[in-house]
Amino acid sequence: xxxxxxxxxxxxxxxxxxxxxxxxxxxxxxxxxxxxxxxxxxxxxxxxxxxxxxxxxxxxxxxxxxxxxxxxxxxxxxxxxxxxxxxxxxxxxxxxxxxxxxxxxxxxxxxxxxxxxxxxxxxxxxxxxxxxxxxxxxxxxxxxxxxxxxxxxxxxxxxxxxxxxxxxxxxxxxxxxxxxxxxxxxxxxxxxxxxxxxxxxxxxxxxxxxxxxxxxxxxxxxxxxxxxxxxxxxxxxxxxxxxxxxxxxxxxxxxxxxxxxxxxxxxxxxxxxxxxxxxxxxxxxxxxxxxxxxxxxxxxxxxxxxxxxxxxxxxxxxxxxxxxxxxxxxxxxxxxxxxxxxxxxxxxxxxxxxxxxxxxxxxxxxxxxxxxxxxxxxxxxxxxxxxxxxxxxxxxxxxxxxxxxxxxxxxxxxxxxxxxxxxxxxxxxxxxxxxxxxxxxxxxxxxxxxxxxxxxxxxxxxxxxxxxxxxxxxxxxxxxxxxxxxxx
Length: 488
Description:
Helices cover 6% and strands 35% of the residues.
């Protein structure tokens, strides 16, 4: 089934990257397709048109975007830009972008058209490939990649410029699925995404939708939604038992809606908050901490919404909404004794004692600190500094700072890509995944055009042991990869 493309109300620069492949030539003799792992009708096309000498075979893949199509297994090792086929998602599989010449299939059509130097694939050949991908791109035995373990470790990236959530297999770091989210045909900007504590569901909030949605982790199927009304629904916190979600509306008269997650019904709300944004719960789930993004303080609110306290983050002794610290996000330490706050105006991390509400220390970091993630095995706090043009020079926009959560010392910093935002620690595979928004001018041209207005962002990764960027991994996703989450 084709994905319905949403209409974007804004236009960003579209940049189209090209394959590095040149001078692709096809073998004159037909290539054997037996024992390649492909279904016969697919193998006839790929082995005779694509996995040929000088093109996408093992010997030539270095000059062909790193992609080998010599077998079904090799196909699912991906290219230099990540997965080229995403099961059940022909409209998001770049394999078709460079081979399809027919409007009826609704995919992006890019050049250079493959196979280079040979006639374009016929309509019937494209239909075979399109239908194959739409059915999961199974191998000759009918096995769909990634289908053997619905509980595999996954991470999620919500692309708020195109209302698409991309699902990655953490072990291979390949995109394994996509899901179009939202309520209407307009871009609703999925802003925040989080997996439930029991790993059964993932939830998503929107800047431009009046719903808070719930999906199943095992198959990305839609479960339900809460009608929470008009708002710029930025972040949300989920109780440790998974029973409640607290969804935050970032506006001058901001609100927080308490949603019971099994029924997806509203069970309470509070309003009158000035630009609330980041959110976190205490260990007993009876107190919610929410940053006031324009000013010098955050809110401390019992989850029955009976009263609202202000916690001042500077030495003024008084809450104000004059842009000074501008606290963006908040994260509890693993033992809940303290919490960390990114201050995007003052370019620092405030460390606050949870019991007293007193600032323990302030840690200078790069420009516009945004999101955070903690490695419990390394005792590291990772902080994305999205607009940092100082740490690595003005030609590189952004950095990820690494802080020891016990000593509060800066351990190092890593350049991960243009405008890093979301951070996900994968203790199992010893990696930290980073979503790089790539929406401001000056970023790298994407490998391919986007489904929606704007240019694609991408995901990179940091080695948790060496704190170095993992070379050779840059998985392109859709427009403005903002929200992020990972299974536990």
